[in-house]
């Protein structure tokens, strides 16, 4: 979409907004009203809060700011301000009910599409290349992924359905890929819908290292678990051990033991844990402990991005591991097309120039890096998007999951969360220094 102008840009933005709404509608129509207003976990908002919050952000940015229109519901701004009310408190607020919330988001969308059709897409940084519409699309898709995580936490019968993710399509893969030392361009200054924390592009030197060709699988993770990895203090960081013992963590979230084997519950379906899929629902601390047990470490964020984007033939950084084209179903497991990660080796067409697989899609990958702004960072359009989260308490995750929409992921995209989090679709892969022998 970099070259799109005028009408085509508007059509592209309208299509992206419409696709996001189709998904929000499907996720909220899948359950009854009682379920929509219920809090399924203290970690999550009721689904009806997410829905009206999506509308509220769209009203603030597209209707009021870009469009300069009259507010629709200034009385509810406070209720849906994520900074005023922590998730645990949201059920006790006088929230819009399911039908009110649905009517509100539809009304906002009508106005937003009218603004998109009429306002000039230049002259203001917020509307340049329809940025505000891209930002709001990504915001809605991010909440859709959050709502998908709420579905995973919800008790009861399965209500979401999708075809199984593809099985392995690649031949034998090496366990690791070597990434040569040298500089590469990290971040972007040209991607039109990139958010403030992905900017600006800047050169980073990365020492030579080895990176796992694929994310760590359930099968590999089981070896760690079965060899007593959760009980051995030496594999864990101090904070990780404290967390693991205080909460009696003994396996990835949603796993349980039955008749001698490991099972998992996924969106209401119980099944044996498949060995060849990337492990998911592990915390940063579990990822770190596994890596130590394996004689490795987690990659830094810069290492991850170099492995994903650097093309040694041109010296350039790509938008995605496979090149500059938008993701298709052949490249990556994205967009909730499937309700879980695909087997490792399922996306040979999505491999990076250096030969690393499944960097985009399947599972978010923990990195060892704290969330900070790049050199030259400037908050845009508001500090609360990223800047207020900068600091040592958040770790960066990369690459998106099966639940991430293609519009909300790219080689430069950065996610962040607390190292204890496991309800997100988080996995990892390991790295090791090139100079250290085996
Ligand atoms: Fe939000």
UniProtKB/TrEMBL annotation:
Question: For gamma-L-glutamyl-L-cysteine, which residues are the binding ones?
Answer: 87-90, 417, 421
- In the record, what terms sit under GO molecular function? gamma-glutamyl hercynylcysteine sulfoxide synthase activity; iron ion binding
Establish whether keyword Oxidoreductase is in the entry.
yes
Q: Where is the DinB-like domain?
A: 16-147
The entry assigns this protein to a family as follows: Belongs to the EgtB family.
Record keywords: Iron included? yes
Name of this protein:
Hercynine oxygenase
Describe the reaction catalysed, as an equation: gamma-L-glutamyl-L-cysteine + hercynine + O2 = gamma-L-glutamyl-hercynylcysteine S-oxide + H2O
- Record's NCBIfam families? egtB_TIGR03440 (TIGR03440)
The Sulfatase-modifying factor enzyme-like domain covers which part of the protein?
174-432
User: Which principal EC class is assigned to this enzyme?
Assistant: oxidoreductase
- InterPro entries per the UniProt record, alphabetical: CTDL_fold (IPR016187), DinB-like (IPR024775), DinB/YfiT-like (IPR034660), EgtB (IPR017806), EgtB_Actinobacteria (IPR032890), Sulfatase_Mod_Factor_Kinase (IPR051043), SUMF_dom (IPR005532), SUMF_sf (IPR042095)
**Annotated pathway, please?**
Amino-acid biosynthesis; ergothioneine biosynthesis
User: One Pfam family name from the record?
Assistant: DinB_2
Q: What EC number(s) would the UniProt record show?
A: 1.14.99.50
Q: Which terms are listed as keywords in the entry?
A: Iron, Metal-binding, Monooxygenase, Oxidoreductase
Name what cofactor the protein needs: Fe(2+)
Q: Which residues bind Fe cation?
A: 53, 139, 143
């Amino acid at each position: 979409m970099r070259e799109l102008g005028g009408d085509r840009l508007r059509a592209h933005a309208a299509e992206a907004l419409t696709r996001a709404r189709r998904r929000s509608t499907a996720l909220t129509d899948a359950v009854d009203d009682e379920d929509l207003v219920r809090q399924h976990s203290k970690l999550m908002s009721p689904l009806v809060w997410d829905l009206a919050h999506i509308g509220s952000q769209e009203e603030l940015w597209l209707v009021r700011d870009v469009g300069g229109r009259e507010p629709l519901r200034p009385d509810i701004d406070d209720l849906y301000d994520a900074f005023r009310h922590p998730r645990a408190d949201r059920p006790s607020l006088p929230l819009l009910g399911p039908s009110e919330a649905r009517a509100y988001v539809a009304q906002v969308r009508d106005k937003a599409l009218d603004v998109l059709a009429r306002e000039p897409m230049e002259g203001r940084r917020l509307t340049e290349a329809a940025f505000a519409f891209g930002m709001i699309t990504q915001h809605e898709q991010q909440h859709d992924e959050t709502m998908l995580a709420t579905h995973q936490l919800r008790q009861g019968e399965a209500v979401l359905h999708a075809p199984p993710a593809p099985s392995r399509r690649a031949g034998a893969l090496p366990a690791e890929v070597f990434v040569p030392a040298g500089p590469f361009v990290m971040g972007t200054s040209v991607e039109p819908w990139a958010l403030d924390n992905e900017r600006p592009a800047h050169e980073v030197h990365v020492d030579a290292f080895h990176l796992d060709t694929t994310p760590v699988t359930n099968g590999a993770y089981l070896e760690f678990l079965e060899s007593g990895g959760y009980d051995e203090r030496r594999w864990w960081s101090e904070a990780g051990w404290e967390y693991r013992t205080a909460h009696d963590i003994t396996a990835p979230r949603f796993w349980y033991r039955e008749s001698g084997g490991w099972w998992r519950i996924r969106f209401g379906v119980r099944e044996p844990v498949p060995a060849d899929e990337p492990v998911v629902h592990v915390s940063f601390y579990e990822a770190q402990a596994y890596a130590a047990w394996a004689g490795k470490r987690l990659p830094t964020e810069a290492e991850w991005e170099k492995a994903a984007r650097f093309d040694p033939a041109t010296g350039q950084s790509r938008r995605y591991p496979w090149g500059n084209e938008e993701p298709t179903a052949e490249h990556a497991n994205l967009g909730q097309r499937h309700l879980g990660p695909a087997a490792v080796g399922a996306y040979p067409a999505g491999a990076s120039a250096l030969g690393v697989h499944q960097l985009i899609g399947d599972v978010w990958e923990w990195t060892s890096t704290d969330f900070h702004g790049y050199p030259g960072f400037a908050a845009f359009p508001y500090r609360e998007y990223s800047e207020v989260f900068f600091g040592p308490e958040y770790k960066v995750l990369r690459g998106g999951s099966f639940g991430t929409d293609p519009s909300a992921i790219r080689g430069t995209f950065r996610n962040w969360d607390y190292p204890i989090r496991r309800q997100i679709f988080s996995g990892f892969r390991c790295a090791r220094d090139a100079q250290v022998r085996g």
